[in-house]
Specification:
The protein is built from six helices and seven strands. With 237 residues, it is α/β, with parallel strands linked by helices. It has a single domain, classed as Rossmann fold (3-Layer(aba) Sandwich). The protein has a seven-stranded parallel β-sheet with strand order 3-2-1-4-5-6-7, with helices on both faces. Helix 1 links the parallel strand 1 and strand 2. Helix 1 crosses helix 5, helix 2 packs parallel to helix 3 and helix 3 runs parallel beside helix 4. The protein is globular. The protein starts with 6 loop residues before the first strand and ends in a 16-residue tail after the last helix.
Length: 237
């Protein structure tokens, strides 16, 4: 998938990694970049086209897709996280439902809405923003990790189905990013700009997965070890 002259729809495009994607896409010559957001009036990046979308609302997703039928690349970036005190917290079920609506069902809704247009426009590509937490879970982020594990599983199934139709499906695995979601937390964070650049490099290179930081790469390598991270999650640094 080449970025130059592509038409891209990015969900959660108003800040963090989504914003970094829109800027990097424009810098690489994308013909059009749709910034999918809940409040289009807050989009201030010159050159992007703000589109109202709530990925948890099927009607909103369908309306956005109908406005952007020329899309050739979909980046499912919208995501939320909820920090809990314990896996036994009585509020965990409600938090998990909220997180899954965006991180899992939202990915399915947008993918199903846009995939027919990608195919009609020459197959195109889909990027799903996942996490290193797809492979392990800390108690305070149990709901988030479960949603990302589910999204990873869906991404793998989607890739198998769409590969034969010529649509590239790329899963982005990354740890903590220096965004509003992690503001106030003291840990090692990756630059959204660097992650966006690495992801688009991988996309243009024809890859199907990208591990965007050293920590994520190390976690992937250790999955088959006796001290795999899903058994012994790494300390937050």
């Amino acid at each position: 998938m080449q970025i130059d002259d592509s038409v891209v729809f990015v969900t959660g495009a108003n800040r963090g990694l989504g914003l970094a994607f829109t800027q990097e896409l424009l810098a690489r010559g994308a013909r059009k970049v749709y910034a999918g957001v809940r409040r289009p009036e807050e989009v201030s990046v010159p050159g992007v086209v703000p589109i109202r979308i709530d990925v948890t609302d099927p009607i909103s997703v369908a309306a956005a897709a109908a406005q952007c039928t020329d899309t050739t690349l979909l980046i499912n970036n919208a995501g939320v996280a909820r920090v809990m005190e314990s896996t036994l917290d009585s509020a965990l079920v409600g938090a998990a439902r909220e997180v899954f609506e965006t991180n899992f069902y939202g990915v399915i809704l947008t993918t199903q809405a846009f995939a027919p247009f990608l195919l009609a426009n020459g197959s195109g590509a889909i990027v799903n923003v996942l996490s290193d937490a797809s492979w392990f879970s800390r108690p305070m982020l149990a709901a988030y990790s479960a949603s990302k594990s589910a999204a990873w599983s869906y991404t793998n199934a989607l890739r198998v189905e769409l590969r034969e139709k010529g649509t590239q499906v790329l899963g982005l695995h990354v740890g903590f990013l220096d965004t509003d979601m992690t503001h106030g937390f003291d840990m090692r964070k990756s630059s959204p700009d660097r992650v966006a650049s690495a992801t688009l490099d991988a996309l243009e290179g024809g890859l199907e997965e990208v591990f965007a930081d050293e920590g994520t790469q190390a976690i992937k390598r250790r999955l088959s070890s006796e001290h795999a991270d899903y058994l012994y999650p790494p300390a937050i640094e």
